[in-house]
Amino acid sequence: MRLAQQLMRLARIVPGVAGHQDLEALRDTDRMVRLRLASDLRESERDIEAVKRRLMEKKDLSLLPALDYLTAKVEKLSNVMKYAGQGYRGFFDPCPIDQEKLEQLYAFDLRLFDEVQAVKERVQSLGKIAGDSSTIKEAIHTLEETLDQLERIFSTRCNILTVS
């Protein structure tokens, strides 16, 4: 995907993103991206809580520990994204911003949004099948794997761009 297309897609997801043309815009964009990712995850956390409430209303408490675990995991990931160090190590050093590295940065940010969207879809599927215990167990497992994948990807954030 070309640089301009990536920036346009990112700007559609996070209104106000100016891009990474200069050092200050880079910091602002990084912060806005992380805050939007964290906000989207908090939405998923609220949706899991809604599933838990429905199960409690049905007096089906067997899945609550697994859902509590997922809620805690989503909350942790949201906080990690929200409070992560600003910017990318080495990328904010005074130096010209290379187009290839910008393309990598946009691709990385967009991949994070794709992964958060996958989390949201998995959480929504939980809500749709909350009445079927065997199906919801599989959905919980799938959501946990998706969260683990997102965590692994985000953990590479610090290494995505290093200036040599």
Task: Write a structural description.
This protein has 164 residues and is mainly α. The protein has one domain. The chain is 73% helix and 0% strand. It is built from five helices and no strands. The protein has helices at residues 3-13, 23-57, 64-83, 99-128, 133-155. The chain is elongated. Residues 88-92 have low confidence and may be disordered.
Question: Total number of helical segments?
Answer: 5
Which term fits the overall shape? elongated
Helix content: over 70%
Radius of gyration: 18 Å
What is the gist of this entry?
With 164 residues, this protein is mainly α. The protein has one domain (3-7, 21-159). Helix content is 73%, strand content 0%.
Strand and helix map with partners:
Layout: H1 3-13, H2 23-57, H3 64-83, H4 99-128, H5 133-155
Helix pairs in contact: 1-4, 2-3, 2-4, 3-5, 4-5
Features:
164 residues; 5 helices
